Structure formats: structure tokens, C-alpha cells
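Hi there,

I know you've been waiting on this one. I reran it after we fixed the sequence typo, so this is the corrected version. Both the input and the resulting structure follow.
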Amino acid sequence: MEDHELLSKISEMMDQKLDERFSQYDQKLDERFSQYDQKLDERFLPIYDTLNTLKFKQEHMSDKLKGIEVTMNYNHYHLSHDIKKLQEDVETITEILKINNMIPIS
């Protein structure tokens, strides 16, 4: 065998050994991280539940606020309309009273 072929074979063997070793470490790391993931999920589950509850309450409050806004707009429209009609009625009464000389004409 030539030196070059020998070096190539040695290199391949070392690569295989390194791959085997890294594969073992990789599996061990995956196992450890899996355990940490499970523990973190267990710890964060109450937080997720609380966040979901807050989200539901926020959506419910948002719906209520939209309902209140619609009611306010409805009331504002009708109140403005009623005030305008009342002003017209007062002006009509004032004119009738002026015509009948019941109040001084200014």
C-alpha cells in the first residue's frame, strides 16, 4: 500500500470512530434536553393556562366594549335628535307667545 492510501484508510477509520462517538454524545444530549423540555413544559403549563384565561377575558371585555360603543353611538344619535326637536318646539312656543303678546318681542 502506498502512503497516500494508508493515510486515506486511517483517515476514514478515524472519521468513523469520531462519528460513532459524536453520535453517542448526540443521543445523550438529546435525551437530556428531552428531559429538560418535559420539565419546562410542566413548569410553564400553569403560565400557559393563565395566559389563555387572560386572553379569553380580554376578548370578552373587547366584545363588551364594542357593545357599549354601539349603545353609546345609538344614544348619542337619538339624544342629539331629541335635543334638536326640543329646541324647535321651544322656538315654536316662543314665536306663538310673541304673536299673542304674552312675552315681549326683542
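Quick highlight: Residues 38 and 92 are 80 Å apart (CA to CA).

Best,
R. S.
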